[in-house]
Amino acid sequence: MKVWKIINSTFSLLVFLALMSLLLTSSSVPPVDQVEQVRAFTRDIEFDFGQWTLAALWLKLNQFSLGTEAYLAPSTRHDLMVDYLNLVAQIQQKQSQLTQIFADPNIQDPQAASQELRQELDTLRARRSRMAPLAEAILQSQISSVVSDLGLIPGGQPLPPVLYHSTPLPSALIVSPRQVIRQDANISLVPDLTVDQQVKLEDEVAQGLDVSTLVVGIGGIGLYPTMVQQTSSLDWLSEVVAHEWVHNFLTLRPLGVSYMNSPGLRTMNETTASIAGKEIGRGVLERYYPELLPPPPASQPQPAPANPQEPPEFNFNKEMHTTRVTVDQMLTEGKVDEAENYMEQRRKVFWEHGYRSLRKLNQAYFAFYGAYADQPGGGAAGEDPVGAAVRQLRDQSPSLAAFLTRMSWMSSVDQLMQSVGKK
Questions:
Q1: Could you tell me which residue, 19 or 212, shows the higher pLDDT?
Q2: CA R_g for the chain
Q3: Which of 12, 314, 52, 328 is nearest to 182 (CA)?
């Protein structure tokens, strides 16, 4: 019976993959006239999604046809997943050690000094390659169970099925006009660009086209299977896999199909996926890995500082919100140069408070990060009402399933605002 079920499921999956490929291709490619000028700078370093997708599909179909995870006891699944995450952590630690050897000016021959470490890394990576398909299948099954219990799909089978593959992710070149914060291009680049190569590309495009540019790192991409960054954190991994699955879910419905139609619809998509991804991801840990569950956010009010003269603690989200609101006002008044000078000064403030990865703060930064508005307080979204309306609708919904179902059939910001009584 199990064998026939696997064969039937494999056939259904093949049909579904063909459908998803068509939908994702048609809904995720920006209009050519918006990006062709930018692509003149990026063609030689763009990521090959076609090749990646074919390889990932072949891996998934092989694993799916075997159905190995279905025969494992729950405790065995748990232990295999934990072992895999520990293996990834080992690899990350040794990669860090390798980087330090090659950066150490006191080591004359880093190649010789790192020989044993590189051999250990090769062994660990080979083991990871063998373990990864089964570990991914286990987490896919666990997320599917949590999603099914939400009641999103009659019959209990998530549609689309949850499929992901962990891999080094491409970075993304984000392009915004200087006069207004708007994402005009998002071009995926090969994963191994160095920081100096990223800066060179940003400067060339910015100077050549008089635009704002930034190369950003990403945690996942809603292809099918979805592409997710390798990590040793199950909390982060389960959330991101769920987030990208929600994008696949929305792609079969009006909200996902409308993703590229306007900045507001992009914010609706990303904020919906962020809210749902967090809830589903936490549900996975609660059910299968309770010992790895992070503590809930503190609900008790923080005590007042002993010395009232001490400055308040630096709040990244609040300070970024202030920055975005000020920049929007400056740009509205046509003060482009002043806004850019202000953003650079604000970036230095963030640097001084420990946010050392904030390499640039510009219109492109806000165009990208402003769409992820699942947290109250505005952050990079500033006063954009779209994210707040999505959060309000979630608060008003009796369940995550009701929220996702209602959001998924929207195709305009007006529909969202009407649903929360703001229009």
A1: 212
A2: 23
A3: 328
